[in-house]
Amino acid sequence: MRFDYDTSYADAQRLLRHWPGRIAYAALAALLLAGPLVLPKFFIGEAAATFIACIMALGLMVLTGFTGQVSLGHAAFVAIGAYAEIGLLDAGLPFPLALPVAGAIAGLAGLLIGLPAIRVSGLYLAMVTLAFALVVEQAVGRWKSVTGGYDGAQVPDARLFGANIGGLVPFYYVCLAVLVLALLALINLTRGYVGRAFVGIRDSEAAAHALGIWVSGYKVLAFGISAAITGLGGALLAHQVQYVTPDVFSLNLSMQLVLMVVVGGLGSLRGAVLGAVLIGLLPTAISRLKALLPAVAAAQFGLETFIFGLVLAGFVLFEPSGLNGRWIKLRSFFEAFPLYRRRTFVRGKAYASSERHR
Amino acid sequence: MSLLQLDGVSLRVGGLTAVREVSVAVPQGEIFAIIGPNGAGKTSLFNIITRVFAPSAGRVLVAGQDITAVPRHHVVRHGIARTFQNIELFDAATVLQNLLLGRHRFPHGGFTAQFAWTPAVRRAEIASRAAVERTIDRLELSAYRNAPVGGLPYGVRKVVELGRALATEPRLLLLDEPASGLNPEETRDLAFWIEDIRAELGITVVMVEHDMSLVSAVADRVMCMSMGEVLATGTAAEVQADPAVIAAYLGT
Ligand SMILES: Nc1ncnc2c1ncn2[C@@H]1O[C@H](COP(=O)(O)OP(=O)(O)OP(=O)(O)O)[C@@H](O)[C@H]1O
Ligand SMILES: [Mg+2]
């Protein structure tokens, strides 16, 4: 059993307040840092890809999880980030500069699409973002002079102080570093007034207005930040795949990102990371599983899609708060041991609010 | 000069006139109650003051300043805070976070500084927290500080909403049916707090309320509306004795 006693308001702001948490994160950091030294090559690449997936999912989480705006078109921002990275490197910008600028360009695109998109919400917003992604996909395919079209484009090497850091092991560390920085920045953003305003807009626009939150401004801002982070992931993805074609940024990628944030648990950055790890590793797991399945089942077309669907349906039905919700329950089980009550997480009566009085 | 002044305010929604040429002046420090049967236009009046709706005619003045055309999210800067008839809380957030959202209009150390959680941001957060804790103490919410509001009992949710409005440090507090759904004990607490808010914080209170015992207990003046029009204004006893008011309530 543990109780928190704050002796000052500064105490309450600290991120890792307890020894078990500090030790766990220190162990995780050690594992991640030592990983490339012990892992086989295949898994190093796989881990880097997972870090990139985490970054992209974090971007979408800001938008969908915090402000409650659905986007079915986030692959578009991945594409913009990736092609911006290629363009900037081609233009001679050094890699450490090109990466954040590529993210910023994707962020600008996010602001631009956010401006019209915030006029609609829910299903209509989903349609608008979907349409935007289709337009970007087409544009990328046709605009040959810039993107190389369907033939694809070669991604220049990532160089830091003259050394190529595109190799398997250095690139692993680059992706890890960007992920940690993005995560820290978003943790800070979401625990301050901006994050609170985002959540406020999601839960009650009427109250948000009344408290002085510029609702449409913050919605656009969320689009911009979200697109910038996802675009940053896109820029890294370009280096990961080394040769970029438009089909990398298909609808399928957008859907996987949505799957990651929903399965991870909307409204939590930890959820985005957990969801991205699970969904990112699923294809590999499925292909390993295939070897064990009887030939008839393994050869079935669409097995992967089927399992993705199954995972989503399972979470929506049995754990709507996602992997993060499961995590919190486990943690409080150990913290409150032996006093854990299931009922702690059963939500009380929900009160309906009507449209009329807003 | 009165703190809140409405000059011939009207609101038409569709073919219906929800508010018809309402003029009223509420001086600084008054507790002013608005009563009236359902659909009288009481909430609509609040929605006009807080810029949810633009009035089709008339002006709204706060401390002499015309706020009829300010953006909706600037209303709070003029020192106006409100609660909603159907509680509008941020359900997934804790009581503390809900109240901290009330501090949105105060400085928070700059936007880009947020990403790095600089000392300036840290200081601003501590200042917000300290301010919010004063409200938590005043309204006896400390037992619920870290509970998500979605699961709290109805009466507590109403108090949290009042607390969030107070956290904005308003001059004028608009309460839309604060006692509806409360038990007698909670209503007594509320009456005490309303008087306390006025006496200690100097906040002017305008409240829409059906519970006449609460209205008689705390309100200096009462205005009765029906069908968008003002029927009578005066003390609780005067208004209750007014023939037009009695007729409106009896539905003749
Ligand atoms: N957004 C709106 N759209 C259409 N009609 C509206 C709207 N808002 C208010 N009305 C109408 O305006 C009239 C006044 O409504 P209002 O909510 O102000 O009444 P009220 O006095 O607060 O009533 P109650 O005691 O039921 O809360 C009603 O006839 C209502 O149907
Ligand atoms: Mg009403």
Secondary structure blueprint with pairings:
The complex is a heterodimer of chains A (358) and B (252).
Chain A: H1 9-13, H2 19-38, H3 41-66, H4 75-90, H5 95-117, H6 123-142, H7 144-147, E1 153-154, E2 159-160, E3 163-164, H8 168-191, H9 193-203, H10 205-210, H11 215-241, E4 243-244, H12 251-264, H13 269-292, H14 295-298, H15 303-318, H16 322-336
Antiparallel strand pairs in A: 1-4, 2-3
Chain B: E1 4-13, E2 16-26, E3 31-35, H1 42-49, E4 57-62, E5 65-66, E6 80-82, H2 95-101, H3 111-116, H4 119-138, H5 154-167, E7 172-176, H6 184-201, E8 204-208, H7 212-218, E9 221-226, E10 229-234, H8 236-241, H9 243-250
Helix pairs in contact in B: 2-5, 4-5
The complex binds adenosine-5'-triphosphate and magnesium ion.
Residues 13, 16, 18, 36, 38-44, 85 of chain B line the site of adenosine-5'-triphosphate.
Explain what the structure shows.
The complex is a heterodimer of chains A (358) and B (252). With 358 residues, chain A is mainly alpha-helical. Chain A has a single domain (39-343), classed as ABC transporter involved in vitamin B12 uptake, BtuC (Orthogonal Bundle). In chain A, 71% of the residues lie in helices and 2% in strands. Chain A is globular and about 60 Å long. The termini of chain A are far apart. Chain B has two domains: 1-79 and 170-252, P-loop containing nucleotide triphosphate hydrolases (Rossmann fold, 3-Layer(aba) Sandwich), CATH 3.40.50; 89-168, no CATH class. Chain B contains nine helices and ten strands. In chain B, strands 6-7-8-3-9-10 form a six-stranded mixed sheet, sandwiched between helices. In chain B, strands 2-1-4-5 form a four-stranded antiparallel sheet, covered by helices on one side. The radius of gyration of chain B is 19 Å and the shape is globular. Chain B starts with a strand and ends with a helix. The mean pLDDT of chain B is 92. The interface between A and B is large, with 38 and 52 residues. The site of adenosine-5'-triphosphate (ATP) has 12 residues of chain B, from β2 and α1.
